[in-house]
Amino acid sequence: MARTLATDPAPGSSETGTTDRTQPSKPLGSAQLQPAAIFSHHMVVQRDEPIAVFGTGEPGLRVRVCLGDSTRGLAVATCTVRADGTWLATLPAQPAGGPYVLHVSGGNVFLHYEDVMIGEVWIAAGQSNMEFELRNANGANTALEHSASLPIRFYNVPKRGRVDSELLADEQLTSWFPCNENTSGSMSAVAYFFAERMLESEPNVTIGIVDCYVGGTSVSCWMSRETLRSTKEGEHYWQRYLSAIEGLSESEQRACMNAWQNDFDAWNAAAGTPDRGECPWPPPLTNFSQFRPTGLFEAMVERIAPFGARGVLWYQGEEDTPYANDYAILLHCMIDQWRAAWSANLPFIIAQLPQFMETLGWVEIRAAQAQVAREIDNAFLACLMDCGEEDDVHPTDKRTPGRRLAHTVLTRSSVKLLSARLLDSNQVLLAFNEELAPDVDSAVFDIEVSKVLVHGNEVLLSCANEPESLRYGWYCWGAKPIMSRFSVPAEPFIVSSFER
């Protein structure tokens, strides 16, 4: 199989995240009163938390929001459109249930959103491996056929790099979709398998997935300009962007983008041919690009915040391997900003990059992801060291990552090293927080190991020489990792000194 670059978009992914429709499939407001685009028929709102309903309108307009069924209203809230044209009404928290109708009214506008469910909402965010669609994943046919029997719904946030008329037109065509054979193929495969696993624990609670991703994007795309430029690491990203567009008019930038798109389309069309050549990536940066720093925060994240969610599934980092040393601080800043937009304790489940034949930057990104999960409360690492393909950055097995993310949500833990003791001149005892599977390949360590014994949660290493330090899983592509008895891989680690 031909190697694909770490920054490629997901194969077959849609450019905008919208479906092939030309007519709105939801009630539309007007300049007088317009709820945010994420509100539509079939939506899922978060259970057991206050329900934020928001949008734009005429300053001073009184807005009324009511959630109910055919016989009664469950909750009512009112608010006034602020001077900046935005409004937010907050309904009291409700238990899981439905279907309901959400009524939004003000002035001459009366909107009704039908088939609304209250359940668990998760934001699936990041780049191409989260973007990878269910229709392209292993087991797609079976999953698609089965999807209609599961209470899963999804919303694809339009993929645009700035707020303009094109984005507004896309938003009018967006809608929530209940999963079935005809719709599920365009949702995130990882998120689908995540939801499928979560339903094994609570089969009667509807899962809502907000798909908010763009392949080939850096972490710098997912935060505001102010946040990005508040650190020297982020300022480097910003200055590289300014240098790329310096002296170019928007028409010149569009010409560059169109030329690149032609090259990229030709490369895609040549799939499977021996003279296909290298992927023409990355695309040129422009002031309207999805790939420009801060663009996706403005055109995607801010368009859906503060729509209630249980947490964020974050699968990203491949694009930032050239600047891996900057990643931890930037991911930390991004999480802080998203929590400011939603809630201070919004859980983040970070998918640690799987194995792949990349440069050392891949290893360093994994380390940065683990660092952030350690340092930030309510952030958790989902280790994927048992996943990946050596020569393809887009593994088609998305069931394992999806279920691993769900396992991490349900257990709030990962398989970690607790201690490392040097017993004598050449024996090391490693203790983990979970019982381990019996087979451990000595090649997972960066020292020469002659024998490995596993007992319960401990691993005894017989080393050729007395080690001064030890690294486990510190490779881009290599041996199968240490696994727990529940088939969860141990996180990579470094031991710089041993207990005695």
Automatic annotation (TrEMBL):
Gene3D superfamilies for the chain: Immunoglobulins (2.60.40.10), SGNH hydrolase (3.40.50.1110)
Q: Where is this region: Disordered?
A: 1-29
Q: Provide the GO MF annotations for this entry.
A: sialate O-acetylesterase activity
Q: Which UniProt keywords apply?
A: Hydrolase
User: Which Gene Ontology terms describe the biological processes this protein takes part in?
Assistant: carbohydrate metabolic process
Which Pfam families does the record match to this protein?
SASA
User: Which InterPro entries has this protein been placed in?
Assistant: Ig-like_fold, SASA, SGNH_hydro_sf, SIAE
Please give the name of this protein: Sialate O-acetylesterase
